Structures are given as C-alpha cells and as structure tokens.
C-alpha cells in the first residue's frame, strides 16, 4: 500500500462542528455520474449551507444569485437531484438526504468497459429492471 503524506500538514481538514464533509459514496455509488454540472453545483451549495440535519431555507432568488444560474437551470438542477435521490424539497425547505444506496436506490449501471459487469450483476439488473 502506498503511504500518503499531507502536502501541507498545517492545513489538514477537520470535520466542522456544525456539519460533515461530502459522503464519499456520492462517487463510489455513482450518484455524481447521474447529476448535471449545475445539479452538482447546487448539491455542493446545499451541503455547504445546510445544518447538521442537511436542512436549508435558501430561497430561489438567493441560490440563483450565488450560483449564477437562471430559474430554469435551478429548477432543472433541483429536479435532477430529487430524481437521483440526493435531496428532498418542499418549498422553501431543502433537505440533503443520507446516501443509503442499499435501502433506497440501485447504483447506476456501469457504462464503460474498464469496469465490466459480472454475470451476477447482469442477471440482477435483468431481474430487477433498470432505473
């Protein structure tokens, strides 16, 4: 195993008191691959401004201004995140959701030959259907 050493040991990240870092399953479970760039930006914003329960009351006007998007792009990004299962939204409240892929959602099918599916994965997808 390769040993890793911090480039700047004086600036090692610590989990903030008020929240946590972004869950690594966002990438490992392939959620990020199903998000548009604007949806990913909105997700990062909501994770950053949310409280310990992932709740945020930022309104459309504030988000549009901070992310430099229009209302249509914001609505599309929000719908993308809801569809993927990353957020819940009930105006004016956003909630960043826990990533419990085993219980709530199947991972996205793999799309490249660098990570081929096993026969078991193929049969499972065929049996359960794709999302």
Structure overview:
This protein has 131 residues and is mainly α. The protein has a domain at 23-103: Winged helix-like DNA-binding domain superfamily/Winged helix DNA-binding domain (Arc Repressor Mutant, subunit A, Orthogonal Bundle). The chain has helices at residues 25-28, 37-49, 60-67, 71-84, 101-104, 119-128, and strands at residues 55-56, 87-90, 93-96. A three-stranded antiparallel beta sheet has the order 1-3-2. A hairpin with a 2-residue loop joins β2 (87-90) and β3. α2 packs across α4 (71-84). The longest helix has 14 residues, at 71-84. The mean pLDDT is 82.
Tell me the layout of helices and strands.
Blueprint: H1 25-28, H2 37-49, E1 55-56, H3 60-67, H4 71-84, E2 87-90, E3 93-96, H5 101-104, H6 119-128
Antiparallel strand pairs: 1-3, 2-3
Helix pairs in contact: 2-4
Radius of gyration from the alpha-carbon trace, in angstroms: 18 Å
CATH architecture of one domain: Orthogonal Bundle
Q: Work out the helix count.
A: 6
Mean pLDDT: 82
* Percentage of residues in helical conformation: 40-55%
CATH class value of one domain: Mainly Alpha
Helices and strands, in N-to-C order? Answer: HHEHHEEHH
Report the span from N to C terminus.
Answer: 37 Å
Strand content: 5-15%
Q: CATH superfamily name of one domain?
A: Winged helix-like DNA-binding domain superfamily/Winged helix DNA-binding domain
């Amino acid at each position: 195993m390769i040993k890793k050493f911090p480039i700047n040991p004086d600036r090692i990240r610590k989990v903030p008191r008020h929240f946590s870092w972004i869950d690594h399953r966002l990438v490992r479970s392939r959620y990020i691959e199903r998000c548009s760039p604007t949806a990913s930006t909105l997700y990062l914003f909501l994770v950053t401004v949310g409280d310990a329960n992932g709740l945020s009351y930022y309104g459309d006007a504030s988000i549009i201004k901070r992310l430099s998007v229009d209302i249509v792009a914001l609505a599309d990004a929000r719908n993308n995140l809801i569809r993927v299962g990353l957020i819940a939204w009930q105006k004016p409240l956003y909630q960043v959701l826990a990533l419990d892929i085993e219980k709530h959602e199947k991972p996205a099918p793999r799309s490249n030959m660098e990570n081929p599916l096993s026969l078991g994965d193929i049969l499972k997808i065929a049996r359960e259907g794709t999302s």
